[in-house]
From TrEMBL:
This is Catalase. Signal peptide: none annotated. The active site is at H75, N153. Keywords: Heme, Hydrogen peroxide, Iron, Metal-binding, Oxidoreductase, Peroxidase. Residues 36-50, 515-525 have a biased composition (Polar residues). Residues 1-50, 506-535 are annotated as: Disordered. Belongs to the catalase family. Its cofactor is heme. It catalyses: 2 H2O2 = O2 + 2 H2O. The keyword Oxidoreductase applies. It comes from Fibrisoma limi BUZ 3.
Length: 535
């Protein structure tokens, strides 16, 4: 029987033959043992049972069991590329140093390596790239002062202005916890109670909610940051990426045609363009505003549901980014890369934007869970400069971040025994004065509708038509009182906007009723036919 001992070519746990000399191509285990039999588990006879001391099999299968890390809680599906950012040295007609001392911007032509990850937001790691969703646009600049991450989206505004609401927003857009389906009824239940989302919804349900690919879309920091100069003076700043390939968005039927044949089209487009040497480029532009409340504006400058009007705050170019190299390994680079809004360099700072502050906790928190405690030691996340800390150990620590010549006994500071030294800051800190009562309150100037209405009127006809169709489609499944509430909100943005959605919903309702009547008539006919066939 098959359990008879069968002499084979095996030797020891790996099948190593003492006379064999491994080469660079030799398949090994992770322990470095040549793996002479990668086809069969070790069994008692050829029919088994399998033995448990079979280390090469246990190592292989248990590593496979752990191949996945948790996908990002949002922005799970992405594509990435390496490139370079080149500074102009100026902002508008002025030297950039007037506003920021960040070294990467200072000299004309100065180059800084970057890694970019584009993404969709709501659906899982292998979801179609044609879905209506904001697109992530995250850039890691490996500067001489350490890393700077600019974690943005394609759209320039956001759904909410308070970080407290983010998990609810995401839950409403993610699949229903019971049916596991994305559901317009749940989305608009939340949105109808979140009037600040109207500006973002107007963009999202128009063709701007489905960029044609990652190369032909804009990017934006969305939240407000600060620039700080060498006197320690700060200004508010918003960042925008403008694609030199032009902008292209899809109407819903175009997206559906692509999706029927290819649900990886954006990843493929980026990869193929870079392989073909057709390197995509974006210009980085900023808007600058003095750091105060600006009572003359009808919105709060720190409200991320608003655009800063370009006639008052012009877009000023500061540099250009070129993506010129595909990742060598998707998992190492695109999956394990970790961006965060807290990752700033000298000369860049936070504003008091409440969303920005909430985000800044969330990113590194999730990455410690998603990638691991020592995620910053991975090559894609580590700065391309020397790192010296007294942070030690933890899961998967890969190296000790020590300085050359540092006393190995000293992993604390201060010390007089040749440990790491706290450097002295030469440029003055930015130290804004802040005073007030600690409260939990919304901002005063909410102005939820006027920019959404303006956007509605600015769209081209085909964009407005697509917007109305998409809203009617998504709202059709919502309960009547939610539809009514949404029509009321659209009307507050623009009378015509509300009217068209209301009429669209009425027509869709009529069609549905008509369909039902037809269905009933059909069923009657089928029943009659059956009765005739089987009297
Ligand atoms: C990813 C939180 C708002 C852009 C993420 C991730 C979290 C998160 C936890 C996953 C990160 C990871 O696993 O590495 C939040 C919170 C927000 C917020 C709490 C609001 C309070 C925004 C806004 C934008 C944005 C307003 C656009 C400016 C992105 C992008 C990614 C991302 C682009 C993907 C980064 C990548 O490619 O790895 N966000 N987010 N998020 N978020 Fe946000």
């Amino acid at each position: 029987n098959g359990n008879q001992p069968t002499p084979g070519p095996e030797f020891g746990a790996t099948g190593l033959q003492p006379q064999d000399q491994p080469t660079d191509q030799t398949l090994t285990t992770r322990q470095g043992h040549p793996l002479y039999n990668n086809q069969n588990v070790r069994t008692v006879g050829s029919r088994g049972p399998t033995t448990l001391e079979n280390y090469p099999f246990l190592e292989k299968i248990s590593h496979f069991d752990r191949e996945r890390i948790p996908e990002r809680v949002v922005h799970a599906r992405g594509a990435g590329a390496h490139g370079v950012f080149e500074a102009y040295g100026t902002v508008g007609d002025e030297p950039v140093s007037k506003y920021t001392r960040a070294k990467l911007f200072q000299e004309k032509g100065k180059q800084t390596p970057v890694f970019v990850r584009f993404s969709t937001v709501i659906h899982g790691g292998h979801s179609p790239e044609t879905l209506r969703d904001p697109r992530g646009f995250a850039v890691k600049f490996y500067t001489e002062d350490g890393n700077w991450d600019l974690v943005g989206n394609n759209l320039k505004v956001f759904f909410i202005r308070d970080a407290m609401k983010f998990p609810d927003l995401v839950h409403a857009f993610k699949p229903d916890p019971l049916t596991n389906r994305q559901d317009g009824g749940r989305i608009f239940d939340f949105i109808s109670n979140t009037p600040e989302a109207m500006h973002m919804i107007t963009f999202l349900f128009s063709p701007w909610g489905i960029p044609a690919n990652y190369r032909q879309m804009q990017g934006s920091g969305v939240n407000t940051y600060k620039w700080v100069n060498d006197k320690g003076e700060g200004v508010l700043v918003k960042y925008h990426w403008e694609p030199l390939q032009g902008i292209k968005n899809l109407a819903q039927p175009e997206a559906e045609q692509i999706q029927a044949k290819n649900f990886n089209h954006a990843t493929q487009d980026l990869y193929d363009a870079i392989e073909a040497g057709n390197y995509p480029q974006w210009e980085l532009l900023v808007q600058i505003m003095s750091d105060d409340e600006h009572p003359e504006l009808d919105f709060d400058p720190l409200d991320d549901t608003k655009l800063w009007p370009t006639d008052q705050f012009p877009w000023m170019p500061v540099g250009k980014m070129t993506l010129n190299k595909n990742p060598e390994n998707y998992f190492h680079e695109v999956e394990q890369v970790a961006f965060g809004t807290g990752v700033l360099v000298d000369g860049l700072d936070f504003s008091d934007d409440k969303m920005l502050q909430g985000r800044t906790f969330s990113y590194s928190d999730t990455q410690r869970y998603r990638v691991g405690t020592n995620y910053l030691q991975l090559p894609i996340n580590a700065p391309k400069k020397h790192v010296a800390t007294n942070q030690r150990d933890g899961q998967m620590q890969y190296r000790v971040d020590t300085a050359p010549g540092q006393n190995p006994h000293v992993n604390y500071e201060p010390s007089s025994l040749n440990g790491l030294k706290q450097p002295e800051r030469k440029a003055p800190d930015h130290t804004p004065y802040i005073a007030g009562n600690l409260v939990r309150q919304p901002i005063d100037r909410t102005n939820n509708f006027s920019q959404a209405g303006e956007r509605y009127r600015l769209f081209e006809d085909w964009e407005r038509d697509d917007l109305i169709n998409n809203l009617v489609d998504a709202l059709s499944g919502a309960e009547q009182h939610i539809q009514d509430k949404m029509v009321e909100l659209f009307s507050q943005c623009d009378e015509d906007y509300g009217r068209r959605v209301r009429e669209g919903l009425q027509q869709a309702g009529d069609r549905q009723k008509h369909g039902q009547v037809n269905n009933e008539a059909n069923q009657e006919a089928v029943q009659k036919a059956e009765e005739m066939a089987h009297p």
